[in-house]
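Hey, I'm writing a tutorial for new members on how sequence and structure tokens pair up, and I'd like a real worked example in the thread rather than a made-up one. If someone can provide the structure for the chain below, I'll link this post from the tutorial.
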Amino acid sequence: MPTSLPSPLRLVLVDDHEMVLHGLDAMLGHFPDQVTIVGQTTTAAAALALVAQETPDVVLCDVRIGQESGLDLCRRITTQFPETKVVLLTVYDDEHYLYQALRVGASGYILKRIDGQELVAHLRRLREGETVVDHALAGRVALSAARLSAGEFWSGAHLGLTQRESEVLELLVSGHSNKGVASKLVVSEDTVKTHIRGLYRKLGVSDRSGAIAVALREGLFR
């Protein structure tokens, strides 16, 4: 008896740009035997309602949805609907976002420049239980993993900094304001201020210039 093919993956698309949604709809429409779009929306609230109503296999959403955070949406979906997987489909070619996505339960992180065939191939791998990462970022992730296995943790670990405090300090060294750091890490400015107070205390400094001076003296970021 021939083996039946698996049913198409049921997708919900979330992006604050209608043009992106139309483009994804058209692109994925060439693979009706593998994916079916059961809903699409431009807001996080509507996305949660769609997931509750349609129980999709996968939600594709951006890191940012207007003024809302796709990472927060991912956390809520994976908490409330554990059977639904979330993949971040974004233009942000940045390990910071990738690591945050994985922390909040995302099953994948893919860049929007991907073509339809590649996207569907990634989605098939999700069905097999894999976590999918865009090829453009996979090499950097592998390098980070190699460093961790060799005992080379994040910059500043030897000074007592948490990984997130190190990320914040690196952005301060790069000249980002508190608002800029918050935007880059997709957190609130209050959260950034909390991390900054923590790293000031651990570095034994009282202001931003002191923290940057320590970072430069220690050669934390190159």
